[in-house]
Amino acid sequence: MRVLIFGNETLRQKSEPIKNINEEIETLVSGMFDILEKHQGVGLAAIQIGMPKRLFITQIGKDIPRVFINPSVIETSGELADYEEGCLSLPGVWGHIARPKTVRLQAWNEKGKPFTMDADGILARVIQHECDHLDGTLFVDKLSALKRERLINKYEKLKKAKK
Ligand code: ZN
User: Fold this and answer.
1) 31-39 long-range contacts, Cβ below 8 Å, gap at least 24?
2) Catalytic site residue 130?
3) How far apart are the CA of 163 and the centre of ligand 1, in A?
4) What pLDDT is stored for residue 18 in this prediction?
5) CA of 6 to the centre of ligand 1 (A)
6) CATH, domain range 9-78+99-137
């Protein structure tokens, strides 16, 4: 398993709901946590490793590792927060994005147990970023055309320099 990077069309795919939360999903989740740890990321969606399933994980600082299956955002705050955002699929670049400060969502965990949660701070941010991945949206899509172009140029330069 490896992380797909910007330009790979699979990242633009809309992920499908998971019908059975079984051992296969548990194995996928555990592999995703290994990747997240290796890249020192805070969140990873299954589509980023080429699996078009509505599933993402988070691991933010000292917070517990979290699994979200078939998540749906029920409510977001009217108040927005501006924060610098990055993505494992666009390594090396960050952009300021305004998103709702808090979010309430419903999802299932890896044991098939449904839960509803309210998130704020970085967790709310990561949840929204990862939910976007499930619909084929990347954080750069949220930037103004000019900022997006600059960020992508910077990213392409970095990529070339690494080769
Ligand atoms: Zn991402």
Assistant:
1) 31/1, 32/1, 32/57, 33/57, 33/59, 33/65, 34/1, 35/1, 35/2, 35/3, 36/88, 39/3, 39/88
2) yes
3) 22
4) 98
5) 10
6) 3.90.45.10
